[in-house]
Write a structure and sequence with these properties.
Length: 226
């Protein structure tokens, strides 16, 4: 599903954000990537989405090489990947339904397909009762649920969650993690980048720890040990 092969990423003037990173993620796996600020988590996610390319080594999504991607390839890659960020960027003048529908419209889905699929996606994330609400009417946890629904709109094989609970209280944060686990249970591979120690320890799934751009540990049923 996902493979980092001796990946290094260097930013000017000479900052090694990642240094010979090696690891693989199997289809259907749930993995937490943890590390202090500056450890390389965000750089790793930018490589997964094709926003950046490795300076050394390569990243593969299935058998697609990030290093060899052209601009024409990027839409194909991004149809395979859903991304959820800490900074929830919903369209403020669109309803919950319209926010998710817009992601499908951009993906070229027909109107009939959108009308059929969006309610099902919103039901999956527990927002079936808020289809006509606007983002300003939602709580932080509800907004993040809609953001997850939008990320799932094109049925990605891989869901990347970059600090998705960073702006939430502990109750809403745990509910979002439970939702990610539910999505993973239905077969989507999930990569969670976070510094939330208690959440990681509660998940009891694989944990990859980054320190100074290197993989310091990789444990099944791991814990946040920093």
């Amino acid at each position: 599903m996902l493979k980092f092969h001796k990946v290094s990423k260097i930013y000017p003037p000479d900052i090694r954000a990642l240094n010979e990173v090696d690891f693989e993620v199997a289809p259907g796996e749930f993995i937490s990537i943890v590390g202090q600020s500056g450890a390389g988590k965000s750089s790793m996610l930018r490589l997964m989405t094709g926003q950046d390319k490795p300076d050394e080594g390569d990243v593969f999504i299935e058998k697609l090489s990030i290093k060899d991607l052209t601009n024409e390839d990027l839409p194909f890659l991004r149809r395979k990947i859903g991304v959820v960020y800490q900074d929830i960027k919903l369209l403020p003048k669109k309803t919950v339904f319209e926010n998710v529908a817009f992601a499908m419209e951009v993906g070229g889905y027909e109107a009939s397909k959108i009308e059929h699929e969006v309610p099902k996606i919103l039901e999956l994330v527990g927002m079936e009762g808020r289809l006509d609400s606007f983002p300003a009417e939602l709580s932080g946890g509800e907004k993040q649920r809609v953001a997850i629904a939008r990320a799932l709109a094109h049925k990605p094989i891989l869901l990347l969650a970059d600090e998705p609970t960073g702006n939430l209280d502990s109750i809403n944060a745990w509910e979002i993690v439970q939702l990610l686990l539910k999505i993973n249970h239905y077969g989507t591979t999930v990569v969670l980048a976070t510094h939330a120690r208690e959440l990681v320890n509660s998940i009891k799934k694989r944990v990859v720890t980054l320190e100074h751009g290197r993989v310091a540990s990789d444990e099944q049923h791991g814990r946040y040990r920093l």
